[in-house]
Amino acid sequence: MAQLKKITIDPVTRLEGHGKVTIHLDDKGEVSEARFHVTQFRGYERFCQGRPMEEMPAITQRICGICPVSHQLGSAKACDAILGLEIPETARLLRELLHMGQYIQSHALHFFHLASPDLLLGWDSEPAKRNVLGVLQELPEAALQGIRLRRFGQEIIQALGGKKIHPVFAVPGGVSDALSPMDRDRLLQGFPEAYKAHATAMELFQTWWEKNKEEAASFASFPTNYMGLVDPEGRLALYDGQISVCGPQAEQKACFPPAHYLDYVAEKVEPWSYLKFPYFKPEGYPEGSYRVGPLARLNICRGISTPRAQGALEAFRASAGSGLPQGSLFYHHARLVELLYALERAEQLLETEGICSTEVRITVPGPAQEEGVGVVEAPRGTLIHHYKVDSHGVIQKVNLIVATGHNNLAMNRAVTSVARDYIHSATVKEGILNRVEGAIRCYDPCLSCSTHALGQMPLCIEVLGPQGQSVVQLSRAS
Amino acid sequence: MEGKVCIVGYGNPQRGDDAVGPLVVQRLRAALGPRPWLRFFILHQLEELLLDDLGNASLLILVDASAQDTAERVQWRKLEARGCASACSHHMEPGMLLWLVGLTRGSYPEAWVVSIKGENFGQDQSMSPRALCLALQAQREIEAFLTGWLRSREAGEAPEPLVWAGQKA
Q1: If interface means Cβ-Cβ distance under 8 Å, which residues of chain B face chain A?
Q2: From A116-125, A443-452, B95-104, the region with the lowest mean pLDDT
Q3: Which of A349, A347, A387 is nearest to A370 (CA)?
């Protein structure tokens, strides 16, 4: 048995929220199971009860400061469904544009701030340097490009919603304001530089991938199902579409309207985490594990509607060889493919005739039905808002399933996979903490979103012996 | 003139006197009007997104509320670049911002922090009468400082920008 020890690593890690990992050993000291615990408490589903439905897009976007747009859109779509509305075409385009702005800022944030320190500085580099500041020191021009790219996404959001975080825009029945021609023209000028920043990110990633191909492809790799929205042609869809589920061999297992999600998705509660465990209902728990987010979306789609992103998708698939990419690090690559799509799609939308039309909202006197489901693909994965209201439109019940929840089982498997590589005979190899974090970070989990609370994540790992005794504790913050 | 002057007011308008920095900058903007060498920023908090805008600043003035109990109600502090080990992206110290400016452009602007003492930081959209008075005082001090600074620039007295020495975080 390894000696009981405690390693403290500062600073805290680059995830949103509080969590810890416990690794359970069997009698031989081998890893039997690893658990990623989310120790924050959620409350939104409860305290939204009794609120007028119209307030929901504004309330629920406060769940998260990174993806408020997704919550706002999911919520507005659920309200549209309750009101029985088909929103004006311009409103639909503007909502999608807002969504693309968020993808640009969120994916740029993740790559340059959260993922790139691991990739560019190395997992085993000094933790105090392994952050965006370290990247700024090593590659100042690339880091500045990343900052500008993120800002470009935020400028799109601000032009539409008045604020770069928590914008006021999507409302039941459409959007609150039209896009001005001046803002459209100003935003269109930003694309050449944004594409350059994306190219820099892709080049940095691919250089790293070439050097680390072997480990990268097999790191935290395991077969699962994948889930995400697709358009009527089966292509990548981020704002609207059908929910598609495919298996590890790319075989389609289901494709259904979002409103039918309860026929296919169920949630399991485990006593050791506040984050629920959604699973693919036809296969049961935990066999019905699935993944969402960039990797899942690229694995389920038949293609991408924009030309450059389609080319990037083909390169992505080629990098995995035969079969679907299953390794968790493919998430980073997939995120960059989607970032390119978001740029192309935002440009397309801004160039669409009628994008500055002022017909952006319709209203009706009251609910047409008592239930509504709104689904969008948030940057981290499928986001479901499901509301039940009374005849006056007052919220009676709320169900929110967010990306980090969908990925919960998969993150636990990723952690288990890494732990099995790094723990043998109850001896913990150096570097496990960095790798476990790296595995979780691939999924870009937002624990604040998934439990709807705030915080940073001083990740703590505890290795437990067969009788539950603590063998090793590893943490970044004492 | 070469370079530019950037004045940044930051604070949360939902938290009482924390809004004093943005208020001062709002008033300065109204009082001084648009000038090609002068830029104003109003933010909730300092963030790395400012780095681009500060790229060719010669003078940086940060205006913030202070909860510290100091004798001076409006306190001026010459800012020194200070890299810190925090990887947290939600909060950035003024010294850290300056350090990043130096890192990305190779030199620092002259930088000052103007701290205005507040007494109410609760969840309140109104400011205390004292903070409102101090906002006016700070505004006048900054205007006077700018006048003096511009004169010294015209007289060729302004120091050369400090060269970034590559301090490590």
Answers
A1: 48-49, 51-52, 83, 85-90, 100, 103-104, 168-169
A2: A443-452
A3: A387
